[in-house]
Design a protein that fits this description.
Blueprint: E1 26-28, H1 43-55, E2 59-61, H2 62-68, H3 78-83, H4 92-103, H5 108-121, E3 146-150, E4 153-156, H6 190-198, E5 205-208, H7 218-225, E6 238-243, H8 245-248, H9 256-270, E7 274-280, H10 290-301, E8 305-312, H11 320-332, E9 336-342, H12 349-352, H13 356-367, E10 378-383, E11 387-397, E12 400-410, E13 419-423, H14 446-453
Parallel strand pairs: 4-5, 5-6, 6-7, 7-8, 8-9, 9-10
Antiparallel strand pairs: 1-2, 3-4, 10-11, 11-12, 12-13
Helix pairs in contact: 1-4, 4-5, 11-13
């Protein structure tokens, strides 16, 4: 049945009336001087933002500026920190180099060369994204736009979805947005995706990611996901769509184009597919607008589920009260808390990272403040090369203070749920800074990881 002939389930609340028609207006680094509220900040701070935005991607839309940021609290406001560049996002040497070039009005080639070198120093593709995760065809060539790290799940990067309504300043996919094709993962070949899924019957989940697939027109999105309705892809039972649109542009789900999108999602759920919006939330403020809540309700009316995930970040949400309020509000709105991540080892990590022990304590204290239905958020989780490693806590075993760890997901499924232990290190912020406990010299998975995937 054509999408246009399907109707959404009856609304469970009165139809939403938008306070006003809001056009999508976006600002990039070239527009920093035109964003009116920034005039409140000192000129020196605005220059710092210009320097950082020359290296790391910057994009914000008017909805975020008008509805989500408390400008009386800027620059300390958490949403301001989430979307606007800050000096600490670059180390002093990198910042000073770019600042000097801008001040003396260096030529484009000189400035671009320095920026490219600095970006290369920021680990643009962590956890083996380019080397280990991209499958290869029969001739050994990488299949563009695909990642297949875990047996059951394939990631696809539709080329039309490799931007976002606004950019998160911490984003581990920042390299997708800087205009360097050598750093970009993307494909417009829907048939390539269909063929790959058809010959991999172990794959149960397809994750469309980006960027944000929700920036795409519904007709483009349909090209990639309608093939899931064919008998040849019956084994792919779950469609996940990674998105920040429910926070950064909830209007995506409300207008005529939104109606078409919701009918498409409903078509899949009625066919028996699990459709999950993997929504990125970093602060409860993102749930606070009438527009955001109406978008959530309309998505849920299609039969799709919304699962919420996000990293713990200095300057934004490194507070158990913030996470507890976020999870309680998500549950109230029918959203399932899914993951609390550790900030990844890329981009502006030095500004946002928090020691693992502190991350675990914030997670634990937040969990203590919510009921069981909100305790579905797994973590703290590090999305590292060998898999998703959960920090289960700090404890003492045989007289040694240790981190208790386990794999939530692994390149080898046999690693999943196996506990292992690291020496206690109060400063460690990532797996590669930890060392095995009890005098061991290697992790239990290390030799296999090196032998099968060629990774240290």
């Amino acid at each position: 049945m054509p999408v246009s002939q399907l109707s959404l389930r009856p609304l469970v609340a009165p139809p939403f009336t938008a306070p006003s028609a809001r056009p999508f207006v976006v600002h990039t680094a070239r527009d920093l001087g035109k964003i009116t509220p920034l005039a409140r900040l000192p000129e020196s701070r605005r220059f710092e933002m210009q320097v950082v935005a020359s290296v790391l991607p910057f994009r914000v839309n008017q909805y975020v500026i008008d509805e989500l940021i408390d400008w009386d609290e800027a620059p300390d406001d958490p949403i301001f920190q989430l979307v606007f560049p800050q000096r600490g996002m670059l180390d002093d040497a990198h910042f000073d180099e770019v600042a000097a070039l801008i001040k003396r009005e260096a030529g484009k080639d000189e400035l671009d060369g320095a920026i490219a070198r600095i970006r290369a120093d920021l680990n643009p593709h962590p956890a083996g994204q380019m080397e280990l995760n991209m499958p290869r065809d029969a001739d050994g060539a990488p299949i563009e736009g695909l990642q297949h790290k875990y047996r059951e799940t394939v990631l696809f990067f539709p080329s039309q979805g490799q931007t976002c309504h606004s950019y998160c300043s911490f984003c581990f996919r920042w390299a997708q947005f800087v205009g360097d094709k050598s750093l970009r993962i993307a494909s417009s070949e829907a048939e390539t995706l269909r063929r790959y899924l058809a010959v991999h019957p172990d794959v149960s989940d397809l994750l469309l990611t980006g960027g944000d697939p929700m920036v795409m027109k519904t007709a483009h999105l349909a090209r990639y996901i309608e093939p899931l309705l064919s008998p040849a892809l019956a084994h792919v039972q779950t469609l996940r769509i990674g998105t920040k649109a429910l926070s950064f542009w909830p209007q995506r789900f409300l207008d005529e184009e939104g109606d078409a999108l919701l009918r498409l999602l409903e078509r899949l759920t009625r066919a028996g597919k699990q459709v999950a919006l993997m929504a990125h939330y970093n602060h409860w403020r993102e749930l606070d607008t009438a527009t955001a809540r109406e978008a959530i309700r309309r998505v849920r009316d299609t039969g799709a589920v919304i699962r919420a995930q996000g990293p713990l970040l200095a300057h934004i949400n490194d507070d158990p009260a913030v996470w507890a309020r976020l999870w309680r509000e998500q549950v109230r709105l029918g959203i399932q808390p899914y993951y609390l991540f550790v900030e990844r080892d890329t981009g502006a990590r030095q500004y946002f990272e928090v020691p693992l022990e502190r991350v675990w304590r914030v997670y634990r204290e937040a969990m203590q403040q919510v009921s069981g239905v909100a305790r579905t958020a797994r973590g703290p989780s590090m999305s590292a090369g060998p898999g998703k490693v959960e920090v289960q806590g700090v404890t003492e075993v045989a007289g040694e203070k240790v981190f208790a760890l386990r794999f939530i997901q692994g390149r080898n499924p046999d690693w999943v749920q196996r506990p292992f232990f690291a020496r206690y290190d109060p400063e460690a912020t990532w797996l590669d800074q930890l060392r095995p406990a009890f005098g061991e010299t290697k992790w239990f998975w290390q030799d296999e990881y090196a032998a099968r995937w060629g990774a240290a």
